[in-house]
Amino acid sequence: MEIITDGPTIHLSGDFDVRSTWEVRTAIYELLDGHDADVVVDLTDVSTIDMTALKVLAVATRQATREGHHLMLRGCGPAVRRMLHLSRLSRFVEVERAAATA
């Protein structure tokens, strides 16, 4: 898992699973503590995601809301969206809508 922070955005790439949840969680909370802007977690380059990783994102979203912040997921591919739907965690996280192409 590669984690790159660019302003209020965290870009993740690789496999987001139980082995990488601690590093991702730490990066998200550091960003929430250090910025007043909305935080975006970009999952465009995430190849696989598991339930533990989804729970990290859901809990971080809830914590951000409690602290007056906003956390949004960007670039959720079909596999990520499917896991969010199957786990029913899609009710707890905000997924950025893709811009319509002409």
TrEMBL record:
Alphabetical list of CDD domains matching this protein: STAS_anti-anti-sigma_factors
Domain STAS: 1-102
Coiled coil residues, start to end: none
Domain of life: Bacteria
Assigned protein family: Belongs to the anti-sigma-factor antagonist family.
Name the record gives this protein: Anti-sigma factor antagonist
Biological source species: Nocardioides aquiterrae
Lineage: Bacteria, Bacillati, Actinomycetota, Actinomycetes, Propionibacteriales
